[in-house]
Design goal:
Helix content is 77%, strand content 0%. The protein is mainly α. The chain is elongated, with a radius of gyration of 16 Å.
């Protein structure tokens, strides 16, 4: 995910919508990576410790992705007539 604009009020609606699209793509990528991680662990090609560390990071990324989606949705709702 690229640098996140802290102040969305300075962004145009097109830029905000681009951020929404970017965040959705990131969400999809996170889901694919998590799926691949689970498959890798099921195939026993990584250790349990590595799996847990990667899952922790994936969870943190997913939380951030949802937070960003929420911020974007609130901003769009405030801007809508």
């Amino acid at each position: 995910m690229q640098v996140w604009p802290e102040d969305l009020t300075i962004c145009t609606m097109e830029e905000v919508l681009a951020c929404v699209a970017e965040n959705r793509a990131w969400s999809k990528e996170l889901r694919l990576r998590t799926n691949n991680l689970v498959n890798t662990r099921l195939a026993k090609t990584i250790s349990q410790a590595d799996y847990v560390a990667h899952r922790k990071r994936a969870h943190e990324d997913a939380v951030e992705c949802r937070r960003r989606a929420s911020v974007l949705e609130r901003h769009i709702n405030r801007q809508s007539p």
